[in-house]
Amino acid sequence: MNRLLTTTTAIALGLTALPAFADMDAARAFLDEEIDGLSVLSREEQEAEMQWFVDAAEPFQGMEISVVSETITTHEYEAQVLAPAFTAITGIQVTHDLIGEGDVVERLQTQMQSGENIYDAYVNDSDLIGTHWRYQQVRNLTDWMDGEGADVTSPTLDLDDFIGLQFTTGPDGKLYQLPTQQFANLYWFRYDMFTDEKNMSDFQAEYGYDLGVPVNWAAYEDIAEFFTGRDLSHMGIEGEVFGNMDYGKKDPSLGWRYTDAWMSMAGMGDVGEPNGLPVDEWGIRVNENSQPVGSCVARGGATNSPAAVYAVTKAIEWLENYSPPTAAGMTFGEAGPVPAQGQIAQQMFWYTAFTADMVGDGAAAVLDEDGMPLWRMAPSPHGVYWEDGMKVGYQDAGSWTLMESTPVDRAQAAWLYAQFVTSKTVDLKKSDVGLTFIRESTIDSDHFTERAPRLGGLVEFYRSPARVQWSPTGTNVPDYPRLAQLWWQNIGDAMSGDKTPQEALDALCEQQEQVMERLERAGVQGDLGPVMNEEQEADYWLSQPGAPKAAMENEDEEPQTVSYDELIQSWQQ
Question: What b-and-e string marks burial along 6-32, b requiring 16 or more CB atoms within 10 Å of the CB?
């Protein structure tokens, strides 16, 4: 990042004295030195797009605005490189703060409650789409682009080119957020370990089927058992090897581990894309008007259903039996770099946002002598309750969000910045740094065709039809900030052994319903808010089609694997 920051500082013509005017010369210097041809647009098209930003920014000369996002590689690039360049090109001074994801939600929640304009724009996960649609405290961009934002909406924005707009669109058909980065949680594994002849032969002899990418959790568990403690000195791998990696510390990030589609991977919810309906991956049921009606089985929810208990139980077993002993005390951020150290054979719940770290200087243990990855990524295996047509994983879609409490002129200036950092001129270079794709044109570019072999399946996944089965939290969740904090506290009780999974999930669903009952009584979400079902005997709901699903007599299933090379070939065909 230092090299990029230095380059941008230089091309911005000395950012110690920031210009208070739009500057096309700075735009050309930015295109020469930073973009350097790495764009899906021709140079003529790039200049035309930059000229539009110069012209559109004229009413906002010298304005200072502030925006915020969580700290990941993509947003570091935006804050350290693109923000200074935008300032030099447009004359709008941008301060792009980088803070923790939980802090972003907290600041946004404070602005919602107080009406005070803390930030002029937020990069806010699309997981809050249900919150934004119900509270109506963010500008819906569909109306904004036709109204107050019309003069500052780029003619080359090309919404049809964005791959994640279905995640940021409410049930009313309005667009509430604009994606600026997107990544999935996939299955990650050591391709070299899986294709080693001795490992393949020994696995076949012990388990009676081929070592390969696990299709279901039964195969994942066998593979985890096989590699944990296995001597891989014949491959030149020393030290203790583990068949699973995860984290278990009672921390807000533990909640994301489960709300980020772990339950749907197990098969807890209903069929549907991008999210199951009427029961989603949080176990929340909605009625035909998209109003939440329950979370516990007694009200038709699935948060404490047999499938949910199975999901949490398996995660705990694998953490205890097949993971490094230190993993149970780790947070999301602490656990993320561990696979790059070379001792992990596979990880079911792995975010593609870590791809940049997996190909960097600190990843020598998982790269060959030519710098090519020894690992691959593939679709996540699914649990025994999963059915065809269900989502099978999570996609994070960090998206630009404009609050209604932000003054119009400041929102207009911030919208210019949001479009600049997602523009076709910039997106290919930004994606090359952060590897968090938002545009089809970037994914399909010749550049990423050439780079694909070094990215372990990332490009193949995003070009495949499989990607639609990965999606963020949907619109069933009525108040993400209030409900999300309940997950890590209750799941943490199960991970620590203070409660059984059933006890922890019973408490979780009851607390979720308490929040929804308060929303119903307060009426703050109007006709879109919760209208809770009357409680009934669990058997009533468990006997109905779909979720919540009754417990299986036998949760063991026939393990299935698939050859990674055949999987990739099927995508390409």
Answer: ebbbebbeebeebbeebbeebbbbbbe
